[in-house]
Amino acid sequence: MMLLAAFPLYDFLFMLFAIMACGFAVGVLFSTNIVRMAFYLVISLGSTAGLFFLAGAEFVGAMQLMIYVGGTMVLLIFGVMLTAQERFISLQASGRDWILGLIAGSALLLLLLNAAFSVPKWTADRPTDTLAVDQSKTATPLGLALAGVRADKLGADEKLQPGMSGYLLPFVIVSIHLLIVLIGAAYMARTKRKQVVTNPEPTGGSAD
Amino acid sequence: MIFPLLSTITVSHYLAVGAVMFVTGVLCMATKRNALGILMGIELVLNGANINFIAFGSPYLRSESLGLDGQLIALFVIVLAAAEAAVALAIALNFYNNHSTIDVDRADELKG
Fold first, then answer.
1. pLDDT single digits (tens) A129-144
2. What pTM was estimated for this model as a whole?
3. Residue B28 neighbours by CB under 8 Å, 6+ apart
4. A184 in contact with B at a CB cutoff of 8 Å?
5. Residue B110 domain-assigned?
6. pLDDT at residue B39 above 80?
7. What are the structural domains, with CATH classification, of chain A?
């Protein structure tokens, strides 16, 4: 029991999920097979959900698993299956694109990492040393906030109270947006009876 | 860069994970020629941003965090990403139906 208490479980789990998320994201980047890319992306997004759980956002982590890994990825994999012809499975970019992209990307990565570790407030020790998952109960306050009531800010500033702090209007807007988007997507992706090929392409993409 | 990685896990470590996912997503968008690969890059970018929101909103990582606002914005990002994926997939399928290819370099009809 003493040994278990001394073991830094939080740090170990964070490192596990972080390495899986980053490693499989890099796998998505460097894999050339579109089916493998989809599978690596599933693992990367699932590990991200683990990171959310560790940060105490258990409702968002569950939504990440259900919407992203369960919904969006099924959509993507269906897209891959519907368009998976032999010549589109592994399309390669040219070497010049890769070199330019890697130079710009590593410069951006260095900049972001430097910024992440350079603010002293962000590298200060965290206030509690417990596993956040034990105590997090965020589903009810999140639902109330989406309905326009901020249960977590009841004692807050008076000026923020009337209507300023809830998320009811964004919630309604995003609902209508989702409805319209789904109707539009179904309209655009419908099968056409007669397929008109105006410009027949030669097989095999050129590399440049 | 190795030294801070060995200390206690803080917000900066979450930000580092988010930065790696963001950069890989941007590189995916830049180098993939398959339209669905570009879509996967967009998903990676949105997830990197979401990690940052969650980290700044976590009361277990910072004493003065964003609170619930970070998680709420992350939820909105997830919903909008789902909507965006649906529309982008519909566009990709439409493109595939009309041009019988999924290579974005072939989408050059508007090129002058």
1. 555 556 667 888 888 8
2. 0.84
3. A28, A29, B37, B38, B40, B41, B44
4. yes
5. no
6. yes
7. 2-136 (1.20.120.1200), 137-189 (no CATH)
A164 interfacial to chain B (CB closer than 8 Å) = no
Query: Would B73 be classed as within a structural domain?
Result: yes
The number of folded domains in chain B is 1
CA A32 from chain center: how many Å? 21
Residues of B in contact with A82 (CB under 8 A): 93, 96
Which one of B27, B50, B58 has the shortest CB-CB distance to A105? Answer: B27
CATH value at residue B65: 1.10.287.3510
B53 in any annotated domain: yes
Nearest CA-CA distance, residue B111 and chain A, Å: 15
Query: In this structure, what token pair is assigned to residue B38?
Result: 């570009």
Report CB contact under 8 Å: B57, A109. Answer: no
- Pick A124's closest partner by Cβ from B10, B17, B26: B10
B57 within a domain of the structure (yes/no): yes
Q: What is the ipTM of this complex?
A: 0.89
Q: Do B60 and A126 make contact, defined as CB atoms within 8 angstroms?
A: yes
pLDDT per position as a tens digit, B55-101: 988 877 777 777 788 899 999 999 999 999 999 988 888 888 888 88
